[in-house]
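sorry for the late reply, my laptop died twice this morning and i had to redo everyting from scratch. anyway the thing you sent over, i finally got around to it. pasting the sequence first so we're on the same page, its 198 residues, then the predicted structure underneath. double check i copied it right bc i was rushing
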Amino acid sequence: MIQLPEVIKNAVEALTRLPGVGEKTAFRMVMNMTNWKASELMSVGSALASLQHLKLCKDCGMFADETLCSVCQDDSRQSSHTMCVVEHASDLMAIEKSGHFKGVYHILGGVLNPLLGIGPDELKLDELKAKIIKKGVQEVILAVNPSVEGDATCSYLKSILPDQINVERIGFGVPIGGSLEYLDPMTITKALENRRRF
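ok and here's the structure:
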């Protein structure tokens, strides 16, 4: 069997670190890139290398070009007194894509998971509480994924926030166009829990 050069092996191994990219897909990508011009390879390489200089918004934790992201710089959003708490930046982007939410965000960076050593201190939940009070936030929307850890995180946040702050969790259930017969029991349970008057 032919021995491939180390350069190709290293490139394949690097690409397999991406989510959803297995060895075969990474190999096809690398084989495709062997036909690229040097300038194209340098352009992609420098774009990826520049990710190490990526800044995070000092207020919400979202990616930013400056000290604050575009959402946190928007005065109308700051004055909404509504905050949406999410697990990851990708969750924030999904909510923004809907165009419906007009408040500010806070990215937790994960959920409580004692087995992995992730407690309230690791997620800086006391700092989040202080920020919510300081900003005069009146409504907190917990957009945390439905899981045992997510539920525990939401319950903990609700317990540490003052009673005068309205804390809600986003609804979960049947997707638009979904058929009940194909849904798992947890999804149906959440749909029944989140029912509302019609």
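The CA atoms of residues 95 and 101 lie 7 Å apart.
thats about all i looked at so far, will dig more tmrw
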